[in-house]
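Fold this sequence, please.
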Amino acid sequence: MTDFRFKQTGGIGLLDFYGELTVQDAEKLRQGFIASFERSDYVVVNLKNVSSLDTSCFGLFCSAYRIFIKCNKRLFLIGLGPKVFGAKEAEGRPERPVHCVAECRDGCLWNG
């Protein structure tokens, strides 16, 4: 089960997620992205306290990123690493062909 906390400091929003992020947690992810989108133009998503990230969630992160970009807002990820993605993702980031269905303007969220 996942939980999130959003706080804003100096014009930058910090969205912290906790626990496992799985397809069952999609609604919590969506709520976190909406809360941060409504309150800040620059949002940092902290995954440091996430124990695992299911590949089914990649698309939701990408969709949020594209929406932020379209609205001249920015979304950044921190706390990425092998712990979050598991041993199969040795570099700590998903491979583009696995999760991407569209090219992102101004780069890729995962490859910052």
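Residues 41 and 85 are 27 Å apart (CA to CA). The first strand starts at residue 2 and ends at 9.
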